Amino acid sequence: MSDGTPSAQRSAPASRSASSTTRGTTPRTRAGAKHTASPSSAPESNGRRTQAERRTATIERLVEATITVLAEAGYAGASVKAICDRAGVSQGALFRHFDTRVDLLVRVVDEIGTRNVQSFVRAAGITDATWTLDRLDHFVNVLRTVSRSPTHAAWREVIAAARVEPDLADAVGAAVARFEAAIIRMVELGLPGTPEQNLETVTIVLSIMHMFDSEAVTVRVKPNPAIEAARITWATRVLRELYDRRAG
User: Fold this and answer.
1) What angle do CA 163, 217, 62 make, to 5 degrees?
2) What pLDDT score was predicted for residue 21?
3) Strand runs labelled E in 126-228
4) What is the DSSP letter of 7?
């Protein structure tokens, strides 16, 4: 490839599959959330929120509350009661929008994956251009920052719990697949290449992400600033060498 200067403006990668979860018999508008029967979306003349707006607001409160509770209390502490108390909604309201707690967790994993990909895309500047060398260091630092964030800690809580809960693993697996698909699309836009080259790039980026993910856990137990700094240098060098090799 050339020096990375874009030849045409590129759009951001899609961060979530258009297909929705089809578990059970209830159709869903997004992964995890129930579909309600044609709620009115027209603004009410008295200025109050429409049914659709109230539904969206309640789901957003539940998702935000779940992320917070998972980050603060862990998976074991993320009971329906704890989530509803934090969201300020009744348990009945939760189950009007999600069939089960697992469905809510799937929605949360989808939401966190979307936010993470948006952070990576902004860091790499892929919203309007292919990768450029001057952004690689920032991109690597954002990968680490996101890995250590409370929001991503909530993601890890769910993934770790899925190791011993097969039903949760089956449900969340689809959300993780959507996240990885968005990462692959981001890499293909950021550093275009042949299928073999794209596989190499995706493998490197995902390996760096997994490295920082593991570090985010161990750093709470035993920080090692020297090695942590060396990892940033190493990851940036690996991406830079890959970039230079493509350019050559």
Assistant:
1) 65
2) 33
3) none
4) S
